[in-house]
User: What shape does this take?
Amino acid sequence: MMTQRITLDEFIVQTQQAHLSTTGEFSALLRHLGIAAKIINRVVNKAGLMDIFGSDEQTNSTGDTVQKLDLYANKLMMDYMSNSGICAGVASEEEDYFVEFGDRISSQKNYVVVTDPLDGSSNIDVNVSVGTIFGIYKRVSATNDPLELQDFLSVRKASCGCWVCLVWYFYHVGLYLWRWCLWLYL
Assistant: This one.
C-alpha cells in the first residue's frame, strides 16, 4: 500500500485545525522557514553560475571551514527571517552570536530559530546531499524585552520539539519532522 504524499502547507493546515486555541504564529514561522529553504535550494542549484563555490578561507563558530555558499545561504536566511517579521531572532552556525531582530513587530514574537542554513556544503562538490537544519524554540524572555542567550540554549520545556531537517536530493526537496516522524514535500 502506498502512503499519500503530504505537503508542508497541507500538514500545517491540518495540524493547526486540530489545535483550535493556536494563534498561527508557529505555523507561519514553519511555513516561512520552508520558503527560506526553497530559496537556498534554488541558489545551491545555481551556485556554479553564481561563482559561489569554494572556501572563503575562514572558520565558523564550530571550527568548520566556511564555504562561500555557507555565507550566501546564511545571508539569505537572515534577511528572509528578518524581513518576514515572524520571529524574534536567529542563532546560526555561521554567526558568532545570535542575531536579534529589534524592530517593533519582531520583538513581539514568541519564537526564536536556531539553524545551520546549509549543512554539508563542504561536500557539495562530490554530489552529497545538503540541507537546512533548524529548530524552533519558544523564547524564555518576555516579549518586547531584549533576547537573552538562554532563549537559544538547550532543550528545555520551552522547546517546541520541532527539530526539522530539509534535505535536498538533486531536485527533490523534502522536509522531515522528527516530532511527527513525517516526510513532507515542499
User: Anything to note?
Assistant: The chain has four helices and nine strands. The chain has a mean pLDDT of 79. The chain has one domain: 24-185. The first helix runs from residue 8 to 18.
